[in-house]
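Design a sequence for this backbone.
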Protein backbone atom coordinates (compact mmCIF):
# COMPACT_ATOMS: atom_id res chain seq x y z
CA UNK A 1 0.00 0.00 0.00
CA UNK A 2 1.47 3.44 -0.85
CA UNK A 3 2.32 5.62 2.11
CA UNK A 4 2.57 9.30 2.91
CA UNK A 5 5.70 9.42 5.06
CA UNK A 6 6.85 12.24 7.32
CA UNK A 7 10.58 12.73 7.11
CA UNK A 8 13.04 12.74 10.01
CA UNK A 9 14.11 10.39 12.85
CA UNK A 10 10.79 10.79 14.67
CA UNK A 11 8.59 10.39 11.61
CA UNK A 12 5.31 8.51 11.62
CA UNK A 13 4.22 6.73 8.44
CA UNK A 14 0.58 7.31 7.56
CA UNK A 15 -1.03 5.15 4.86
CA UNK A 16 -2.11 7.40 2.03
CA UNK A 17 -5.63 5.96 1.90
CA UNK A 18 -6.10 6.61 5.62
CA UNK A 19 -4.70 10.13 5.36
CA UNK A 20 -7.08 10.90 2.50
CA UNK A 21 -10.07 9.49 4.36
CA UNK A 22 -9.08 11.36 7.50
CA UNK A 23 -8.87 14.65 5.65
CA UNK A 24 -12.22 14.13 3.96
CA UNK A 25 -14.00 13.19 7.17
CA UNK A 26 -12.50 16.09 9.11
CA UNK A 27 -13.19 18.70 6.42
CA UNK A 28 -16.78 17.51 5.98
CA UNK A 29 -17.32 17.83 9.73
CA UNK A 30 -15.69 21.28 9.80
CA UNK A 31 -17.88 22.65 7.02
CA UNK A 32 -20.97 21.67 9.00
CA UNK A 33 -19.89 22.54 12.55
CA UNK A 34 -17.30 25.35 12.40
CA UNK A 35 -17.82 28.45 14.50
CA UNK A 36 -18.27 31.71 12.64
CA UNK A 37 -15.46 33.98 13.79
CA UNK A 38 -14.62 37.49 12.52
CA UNK A 39 -11.08 36.54 11.51
CA UNK A 40 -12.03 33.24 9.86
CA UNK A 41 -12.96 32.75 6.19
CA UNK A 42 -15.95 30.59 5.31
CA UNK A 43 -14.87 26.99 4.59
CA UNK A 44 -14.32 26.10 0.96
CA UNK A 45 -11.66 25.88 -1.71
CA UNK A 46 -10.03 29.20 -2.53
CA UNK A 47 -11.41 31.09 0.43
CA UNK A 48 -8.03 32.14 1.77
CA UNK A 49 -8.53 35.36 -0.18
CA UNK A 50 -11.50 36.17 2.06
CA UNK A 51 -9.38 36.73 5.17
CA UNK A 52 -7.21 39.79 5.79
CA UNK A 53 -3.71 38.52 6.69
CA UNK A 54 -3.45 41.39 9.18
CA UNK A 55 -6.60 40.13 10.93
CA UNK A 56 -5.04 36.69 11.00
CA UNK A 57 -1.87 38.10 12.59
CA UNK A 58 -3.87 39.94 15.27
CA UNK A 59 -6.16 37.02 16.05
CA UNK A 60 -3.31 34.53 16.34
CA UNK A 61 -1.50 36.83 18.76
CA UNK A 62 -4.62 37.21 20.89
CA UNK A 63 -5.48 33.50 20.85
CA UNK A 64 -2.17 32.47 22.38
CA UNK A 65 -3.11 31.10 25.84
CA UNK A 66 -6.55 32.75 25.63
CA UNK A 67 -9.95 31.26 24.79
CA UNK A 68 -11.92 32.32 21.73
CA UNK A 69 -14.87 33.64 23.76
CA UNK A 70 -12.53 35.98 25.65
CA UNK A 71 -10.77 37.18 22.50
CA UNK A 72 -13.87 38.09 20.47
CA UNK A 73 -14.69 41.53 21.98
CA UNK A 74 -11.00 42.45 22.23
CA UNK A 75 -10.41 41.59 18.58
CA UNK A 76 -13.30 43.78 17.44
CA UNK A 77 -12.18 46.69 19.58
CA UNK A 78 -8.54 46.32 18.54
CA UNK A 79 -9.35 46.26 14.82
CA UNK A 80 -11.59 49.31 15.21
CA UNK A 81 -8.71 51.16 16.89
CA UNK A 82 -6.05 49.92 14.45
CA UNK A 83 -7.86 48.97 11.20
CA UNK A 84 -4.67 48.33 9.20
CA UNK A 85 -1.20 47.06 9.88
CA UNK A 86 0.13 50.55 9.16
CA UNK A 87 -2.23 52.07 11.73
CA UNK A 88 -0.92 49.64 14.33
CA UNK A 89 2.69 50.26 13.35
CA UNK A 90 2.23 54.03 13.76
CA UNK A 91 0.43 53.77 17.12
CA UNK A 92 1.94 54.74 20.46
CA UNK A 93 2.83 51.68 22.58
CA UNK A 94 0.84 52.98 25.54
CA UNK A 95 -2.30 53.10 23.39
CA UNK A 96 -1.65 49.59 22.12
CA UNK A 97 -1.34 48.36 25.71
CA UNK A 98 -4.55 50.16 26.70
CA UNK A 99 -6.46 48.45 23.89
CA UNK A 100 -4.99 45.11 24.99
CA UNK A 101 -5.75 45.74 28.67
CA UNK A 102 -7.57 42.79 30.21
CA UNK A 103 -6.22 40.11 27.87
CA UNK A 104 -3.06 39.60 29.91
CA UNK A 105 0.29 38.28 28.68
CA UNK A 106 1.16 41.80 27.53
CA UNK A 107 4.33 40.71 25.80
CA UNK A 108 2.02 39.52 23.02
CA UNK A 109 0.82 43.09 22.50
CA UNK A 110 4.36 44.46 22.36
CA UNK A 111 5.43 41.75 19.95
CA UNK A 112 2.37 42.37 17.76
CA UNK A 113 3.16 46.09 17.70
CA UNK A 114 6.78 45.36 16.78
CA UNK A 115 5.66 42.83 14.14
CA UNK A 116 3.43 45.46 12.52
CA UNK A 117 6.37 47.85 12.40
CA UNK A 118 8.53 45.15 10.79
CA UNK A 119 5.81 44.39 8.22
CA UNK A 120 5.72 48.06 7.25
CA UNK A 121 9.48 48.61 7.23
CA UNK A 122 10.57 45.35 5.57
CA UNK A 123 7.53 44.00 3.70
CA UNK A 124 5.92 47.19 2.38
CA UNK A 125 2.92 46.81 4.66
CA UNK A 126 1.99 43.31 3.42
CA UNK A 127 1.93 40.44 5.94
CA UNK A 128 4.22 37.80 4.38
CA UNK A 129 2.77 34.63 2.87
CA UNK A 130 5.73 32.29 3.37
CA UNK A 131 6.69 30.69 6.67
CA UNK A 132 10.41 31.72 6.62
CA UNK A 133 9.46 35.39 6.18
CA UNK A 134 6.75 35.18 8.84
CA UNK A 135 9.24 33.72 11.29
CA UNK A 136 11.22 36.96 11.04
CA UNK A 137 8.38 38.87 12.73
CA UNK A 138 8.63 39.44 16.51
CA UNK A 139 6.47 37.03 18.48
CA UNK A 140 5.78 34.77 15.50
CA UNK A 141 6.82 31.18 16.09
CA UNK A 142 6.40 28.07 14.00
CA UNK A 143 2.73 27.56 14.89
CA UNK A 144 1.70 31.18 14.26
CA UNK A 145 3.64 31.29 10.99
CA UNK A 146 1.96 28.10 9.80
CA UNK A 147 -1.48 29.34 10.80
CA UNK A 148 -1.13 32.66 8.96
CA UNK A 149 0.47 31.07 5.89
CA UNK A 150 -2.23 28.41 5.57
CA UNK A 151 -5.34 30.33 6.65
CA UNK A 152 -4.63 33.73 5.11
CA UNK A 153 -2.51 32.70 2.12
CA UNK A 154 -3.47 29.11 1.31
CA UNK A 155 0.02 27.72 1.80
CA UNK A 156 0.26 24.03 2.84
CA UNK A 157 2.06 24.81 6.09
CA UNK A 158 1.66 22.50 9.10
CA UNK A 159 0.58 23.67 12.55
CA UNK A 160 0.77 22.19 16.05
CA UNK A 161 -0.85 23.97 18.99
CA UNK A 162 -2.30 22.56 22.21
CA UNK A 163 -5.52 21.44 20.54
CA UNK A 164 -3.73 19.79 17.64
CA UNK A 165 -1.24 18.05 19.94
CA UNK A 166 -4.12 16.61 21.95
CA UNK A 167 -5.92 15.38 18.81
CA UNK A 168 -2.76 13.73 17.46
CA UNK A 169 -1.86 12.17 20.82
CA UNK A 170 -5.25 10.48 20.97
CA UNK A 171 -5.60 9.73 17.27
CA UNK A 172 -2.22 7.97 17.13
CA UNK A 173 -2.15 6.83 20.79
CA UNK A 174 1.11 8.62 21.59
CA UNK A 175 2.23 7.48 25.04
CA UNK A 176 5.19 9.80 25.60
CA UNK A 177 4.86 13.35 27.00
CA UNK A 178 3.82 15.69 24.18
CA UNK A 179 5.91 18.53 25.63
CA UNK A 180 9.12 16.52 25.30
CA UNK A 181 11.30 17.82 22.43
CA UNK A 182 11.49 14.53 20.53
CA UNK A 183 7.70 14.09 20.73
CA UNK A 184 7.23 17.66 19.54
CA UNK A 185 9.27 16.73 16.46
CA UNK A 186 7.00 13.74 15.93
CA UNK A 187 3.87 15.89 16.23
CA UNK A 188 5.20 18.34 13.63
CA UNK A 189 6.11 15.43 11.35
CA UNK A 190 2.53 14.16 11.57
CA UNK A 191 1.16 17.64 10.87
CA UNK A 192 3.42 18.05 7.86
CA UNK A 193 2.41 14.67 6.47
CA UNK A 194 -1.30 15.37 6.85
CA UNK A 195 -1.70 18.99 5.72
CA UNK A 196 -3.12 18.94 2.18
CA UNK A 197 -2.12 21.13 -0.75
CA UNK A 198 -5.80 21.91 -1.30
CA UNK A 199 -7.62 23.86 1.44
CA UNK A 200 -4.75 23.70 3.96
CA UNK A 201 -6.25 26.55 5.96
CA UNK A 202 -9.58 24.76 6.32
CA UNK A 203 -7.80 21.56 7.32
CA UNK A 204 -5.63 23.26 9.95
CA UNK A 205 -8.62 25.12 11.38
CA UNK A 206 -10.59 21.87 11.39
CA UNK A 207 -7.91 20.21 13.52
CA UNK A 208 -7.97 23.09 16.00
CA UNK A 209 -11.76 23.22 15.99
CA UNK A 210 -11.98 19.50 16.66
CA UNK A 211 -9.72 19.93 19.68
CA UNK A 212 -11.71 22.91 20.93
CA UNK A 213 -15.22 21.49 20.47
CA UNK A 214 -15.02 17.68 20.50
CA UNK A 215 -11.60 16.31 21.49
CA UNK A 216 -11.55 18.45 24.64
CA UNK A 217 -9.12 17.99 27.57
CA UNK A 218 -11.86 16.62 29.83
CA UNK A 219 -14.89 14.53 28.83
CA UNK A 220 -14.27 14.42 25.05
CA UNK A 221 -17.44 13.73 23.07
CA UNK A 222 -16.04 10.80 21.14
CA UNK A 223 -19.44 9.65 19.88
CA UNK A 224 -19.73 12.84 17.78
CA UNK A 225 -16.11 12.82 16.55
CA UNK A 226 -15.69 12.42 12.77
CA UNK A 227 -12.42 10.55 13.39
CA UNK A 228 -13.70 8.13 16.06
CA UNK A 229 -13.28 5.04 13.86
CA UNK A 230 -9.67 6.02 13.13
CA UNK A 231 -8.71 6.94 16.72
CA UNK A 232 -6.19 4.56 18.31
CA UNK A 233 -6.62 6.24 21.69
CA UNK A 234 -10.37 5.57 21.68
CA UNK A 235 -9.72 1.99 20.58
CA UNK A 236 -7.59 1.56 23.70
CA UNK A 237 -10.61 2.57 25.77
CA UNK A 238 -9.47 5.70 27.61
CA UNK A 239 -8.60 8.63 25.31
CA UNK A 240 -8.98 11.17 28.14
CA UNK A 241 -5.73 9.99 29.71
CA UNK A 242 -3.94 11.44 26.68
CA UNK A 243 -1.97 13.53 26.06
CA UNK A 244 0.69 12.79 28.64
CA UNK A 245 2.66 15.81 29.86
CA UNK A 246 5.73 16.21 32.01
CA UNK A 247 5.11 17.44 35.59
CA UNK A 248 5.15 21.22 35.86
CA UNK A 249 7.31 23.10 38.30
CA UNK A 250 5.44 24.57 41.24
CA UNK A 251 4.88 28.33 40.74
CA UNK A 252 7.03 30.57 42.89
CA UNK A 253 5.15 32.29 45.75
CA UNK A 254 5.76 36.05 45.99
CA UNK A 255 4.09 38.99 47.71
CA UNK A 256 3.41 42.42 46.22
CA UNK A 257 2.64 45.13 48.74
CA UNK A 258 0.48 47.78 47.03
CA UNK A 259 0.20 51.19 48.70
CA UNK A 260 -2.56 53.53 47.50
CA UNK A 261 -1.41 56.99 48.61
CA UNK A 262 -4.01 59.81 48.38
CA UNK A 263 -3.50 63.54 48.11
CA UNK A 264 -6.21 66.07 47.23
CA UNK A 265 -8.44 63.48 45.56
CA UNK A 266 -5.63 61.96 43.52
CA UNK A 267 -3.64 58.75 43.91
CA UNK A 268 0.04 58.21 43.32
CA UNK A 269 0.89 55.96 40.36
CA UNK A 270 4.20 54.78 38.92
CA UNK A 271 5.23 53.26 35.60
CA UNK A 272 6.81 49.82 35.68
CA UNK A 273 10.27 49.24 34.18
CA UNK A 274 10.68 48.77 30.42
CA UNK A 275 11.56 45.09 30.87
CA UNK A 276 10.09 42.25 32.89
CA UNK A 277 6.55 41.46 34.01
CA UNK A 278 3.92 44.03 32.90
CA UNK A 279 6.67 46.22 31.45
CA UNK A 280 5.86 49.91 30.84
CA UNK A 281 2.40 49.58 32.37
CA UNK A 282 1.16 51.67 35.30
CA UNK A 283 0.48 50.72 38.88
CA UNK A 284 0.00 51.99 42.40
CA UNK A 285 3.35 52.07 44.26
CA UNK A 286 4.21 48.39 44.68
CA UNK A 287 6.91 46.74 46.77
CA UNK A 288 7.64 43.28 45.41
CA UNK A 289 8.86 40.55 47.74
CA UNK A 290 10.94 37.59 46.60
CA UNK A 291 9.19 34.88 48.59
CA UNK A 292 5.96 34.05 50.38
CA UNK A 293 6.68 36.57 53.13
CA UNK A 294 7.58 40.21 52.81
CA UNK A 295 10.09 42.45 54.64
CA UNK A 296 7.25 44.80 55.62
CA UNK A 297 4.34 42.38 55.83
CA UNK A 298 3.88 39.00 57.54
CA UNK A 299 1.54 36.19 56.56
CA UNK A 300 -1.31 37.77 58.54
CA UNK A 301 -0.96 41.05 56.63
CA UNK A 302 0.32 42.90 59.69
CA UNK A 303 2.16 45.82 58.16
CA UNK A 304 5.06 47.74 59.61
CA UNK A 305 4.07 51.37 58.99
CA UNK A 306 7.57 52.66 59.63
CA UNK A 307 9.20 50.31 57.13
CA UNK A 308 6.64 51.08 54.42
CA UNK A 309 6.82 54.81 55.17
CA UNK A 310 10.60 54.78 54.86
CA UNK A 311 10.36 52.92 51.55
CA UNK A 312 7.87 55.43 50.11
CA UNK A 313 9.93 58.38 51.33
CA UNK A 314 13.13 56.99 49.81
CA UNK A 315 11.55 56.02 46.51
CA UNK A 316 9.07 58.86 45.91
CA UNK A 317 9.83 61.57 48.46
CA UNK A 318 6.36 61.10 50.00
CA UNK A 319 5.67 60.26 53.66
CA UNK A 320 2.34 58.50 54.25
CA UNK A 321 0.06 58.66 57.25
CA UNK A 322 -1.47 55.62 58.92
CA UNK A 323 -1.75 52.60 56.61
CA UNK A 324 -5.17 50.95 56.38
CA UNK A 325 -5.74 47.48 54.87
CA UNK A 326 -8.05 47.66 51.84
CA UNK A 327 -7.86 44.30 50.07
CA UNK A 328 -5.87 41.05 49.96
CA UNK A 329 -6.03 38.72 46.96
CA UNK A 330 -4.01 36.23 44.91
CA UNK A 331 -3.13 36.48 41.21
CA UNK A 332 -1.76 33.53 39.26
CA UNK A 333 0.73 33.91 36.43
CA UNK A 334 2.50 31.15 34.54
CA UNK A 335 5.45 31.02 36.92
CA UNK A 336 4.28 32.90 40.02
CA UNK A 337 1.54 32.82 42.63
CA UNK A 338 1.40 36.48 43.63
CA UNK A 339 -0.30 37.62 46.81
CA UNK A 340 -1.35 41.27 46.60
CA UNK A 341 -1.74 43.12 49.89
CA UNK A 342 -3.41 46.49 49.24
CA UNK A 343 -3.12 49.35 51.73
CA UNK A 344 -4.39 52.93 51.67
CA UNK A 345 -2.94 56.03 53.29
CA UNK A 346 -3.06 59.80 53.01
CA UNK A 347 0.12 61.61 52.00
CA UNK A 348 1.26 63.47 55.12
CA UNK A 349 4.06 65.50 53.63
CA UNK A 350 6.80 65.55 51.05
CA UNK A 351 7.08 66.51 47.39
CA UNK A 352 6.99 63.92 44.63
CA UNK A 353 10.44 63.44 43.19
CA UNK A 354 10.80 64.10 39.44
CA UNK A 355 10.31 61.11 37.13
CA UNK A 356 9.17 58.77 39.89
CA UNK A 357 5.40 58.84 39.49
CA UNK A 358 2.23 60.87 38.82
CA UNK A 359 -0.78 62.00 40.83
CA UNK A 360 -3.90 60.82 38.99
CA UNK A 361 -7.62 60.87 39.56
CA UNK A 362 -9.24 57.48 39.24
CA UNK A 363 -11.35 58.67 36.31
CA UNK A 364 -8.11 59.34 34.39
CA UNK A 365 -7.06 55.70 34.42
CA UNK A 366 -8.70 54.84 31.10
CA UNK A 367 -5.79 56.72 29.54
CA UNK A 368 -3.19 54.49 31.23
CA UNK A 369 -2.66 50.72 30.79
CA UNK A 370 -2.87 48.89 34.12
CA UNK A 371 -2.14 45.18 34.69
CA UNK A 372 -5.22 43.19 35.69
CA UNK A 373 -4.25 42.79 39.38
CA UNK A 374 -3.57 46.51 39.66
CA UNK A 375 -7.02 47.16 38.19
CA UNK A 376 -8.41 44.84 40.87
CA UNK A 377 -6.56 46.81 43.53
CA UNK A 378 -7.93 50.11 42.20
CA UNK A 379 -11.47 48.72 42.13
CA UNK A 380 -11.27 48.06 45.88
CA UNK A 381 -10.13 51.52 46.85
CA UNK A 382 -12.55 53.35 49.19
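Sequence:
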Amino acid sequence: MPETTAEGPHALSIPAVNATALRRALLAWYRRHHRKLPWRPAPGVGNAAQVDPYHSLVSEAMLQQTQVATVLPYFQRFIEAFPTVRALADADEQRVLRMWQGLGYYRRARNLHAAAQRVVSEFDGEVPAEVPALLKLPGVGRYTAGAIASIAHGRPAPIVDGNVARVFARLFNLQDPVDRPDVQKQLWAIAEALVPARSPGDFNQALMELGALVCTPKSPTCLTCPLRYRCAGLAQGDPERLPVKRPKKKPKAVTHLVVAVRRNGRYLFEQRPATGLWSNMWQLPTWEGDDATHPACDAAAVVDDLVVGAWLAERFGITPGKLTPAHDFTHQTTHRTIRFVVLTANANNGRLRPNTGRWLKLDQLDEFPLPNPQRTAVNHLP
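The chain has 14 helices and ten strands.
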